[in-house]
Design goal:
The protein has helices at 28-31, 46-61, 71-86, 91-94, 117-124, 160-167, 171-177, 194-200, 202-205, and strands at 2-6, 134-144, 182-192, 222-232, 243-245, 250-253, 256-265, 271-277, 280-283, 303-310, 315-317, 319-321, 340-344, 354-362, 366-376, 399-407, 410-412. With 420 residues, the protein is an alpha+beta fold. The longest helix has 16 residues, at 46-61. Residues 1-21 and 409-420 have low confidence and may be disordered.
Length: 420
């Protein structure tokens, strides 16, 4: 297998659409498009538009073209949003398979628009010009108010652009948001109020969430964030090197993300939620499309070894999360990863600090040596810098994730992830 030296001045980073003369950005804020509106914004409400505009800041920072919203895709997602609101059912959220059940609909239910995302797209009038050359990916993230990365200072779940900033702390969400060959897509947010939760039967399923096991407390709310992406597969934009997020020399990088501490369980076996570092994503790629194993969970055969150090002289043990990986200690799982790996350390990053990442990356095609730096933000509201995770605060709000993939007309269901 060929080894490629990449001290990562990655101007040809995988799938990146940079060309000579294009502006390069080094922070999310400066990458935002000066003219604002996401392509196709006329099919979005203000909250949805704000979220996708923010997502496009991250895409432009990564050298990717802006994602667009498509009327028929958005109609399919809006229909599914209405279906979820009309069919509250806690067993489809926190049962043994987690919220993956809410990515499908049941015939006969109120508001039924199609069993799968493909059925709902077809019902909305979307036409796949060449189904054999595309994949459709959907992702659902459900949080209860109070979850640190998705809650504002007033205790309300985040909406629009701030919500997208929170979602980009999720290494699995990034696979969709930073999809290189985005063709069409859509995004909705689904508010879950007290009535929805009480009607869902959560008090029977999880009485600890309720007052005397009968009703949720006043102010018990949550929100679902739902995105769908249709993209060429394998991507049309290809190059020899993996690319990363944060990118090379990025500034203003957030300090933390959330995970579960598998070594800190309550009486019901539920792990504590803890703060660890902001994830570093390494996206695989294939110059030769035949080396992308599109039916496998680990599409590019990614293997990664990594180390992290800072300009204060500290060296950290880095944990790599590969596609399909089980959770380990305080580090999250990779059940919904397919095309990237995530690298973490077991505590938040420090503010205004330069970090260096060194990684040996293996794909189905080649091996790469990556080395790059990024600098963290001066502050990150909600971060707990009291020490390594064992000395930090413990959080309990619900946070649930699920994803499915369709290759052409065939479904490949990713392993569903449940965090509570």
């Amino acid at each position: 297998m060929m080894r490629t030296q990449g001290t990562v001045w990655m101007l040809a980073m995988a799938g990146i659409s940079m060309s000579a003369g294009c502006t390069e950005y080094f922070s999310v804020e400066e990458a935002c498009h000066p003219n604002g509106r996401v392509p196709g914004a006329n099919v979005l409400d203000n909250t949805e538009e704000d979220a996708l505009d923010t997502m496009n800041c991250y895409r432009r920072l990564s050298g990717l073209s802006r994602a667009s919203a498509t009327r028929t895709v958005q109609e399919a997602l809006e229909g599914h949003k209405d279906y979820i609101l009309q069919n509250p059912d806690a067993t489809r959220l926190i049962g043994p398979t987690g919220p993956v059940q809410y990515l499908s609909q049941r015939q006969g239910d109120i508001g039924f628009t199609g069993v799968t995302i493909f059925d709902r797209l077809t019902e909305a009038g979307y036409t796949f010009t060449d189904p054999s050359a595309v994949s459709t990916r959907e992702y659902l993230f459900v949080v209860q108010a109070g979850y640190p990365t998705m809650t504002d200072a007033n205790g309300q779940t985040l909406m629009g652009g701030p919500a997208m900033d929170g979602l980009m702390r999720e290494h699995e969400w990034r696979e969709l948001a930073l999809q290189r060959s985005w063709l069409d897509g859509g995004y909705v947010e689904i508010p879950l109020d007290e009535t929805w939760w009480n009607t869902s039967g959560i008090c029977k399923l999880a009485p600890d969430f309720c007052n005397n096991g009968t009703s949720v407390p006043v102010g018990f709310t949550g929100r679902m964030y739902y995105i769908a992406v249709i993209h060429t597969d394998p991507p049309l934009q290809r190059s020899f090197s993996p690319f990363t997020f944060p990118k090379v020399e990025q500034t203003g990088v957030p300090l933390f993300s959330m995970s579960n501490d598998q070594n800190n369980l309550d009486a019901n076996g539920v792990p504590a939620q803890v703060q660890i570092s902001y994830p570093i994503s390494i996206f695989g790629n294939a110059a030769d499309p035949t080396t992308a194993l599109l039916a496998d969970q680990n599409v590019y055969g990614l293997e990664v070894r990594a180390a992290i150090s800072d300009n204060r002289g500290s060296n950290f043990v880095a944990q790599v999360v590969l596609p399909g990986a089980d959770p380990t200690g305080v580090f999250p799982e990779g059940y919904n990863l397919r095309r990237s790996a995530a690298v973490y350390i077991n505590q938040p990053f420090l503010p205004l600090t330069e970090y260096t990442v060194t990684a040996d990356v293996v794909t189905n095609e080649a091996e790469y040596d990556l080395r790059f730096q990024f600098t963290t933000a001066a502050e990150d509201p909600g971060v707990d810098l009291s020490g390594v995770v064992t000395g930090g605060r413990v959080f309990r709000p619900l946070a649930l994730r699920a994803s499915t993939s369709h290759r052409g007309l065939d479904m490949v269901v990713d392993r569903d992830a449940l965090r509570d």
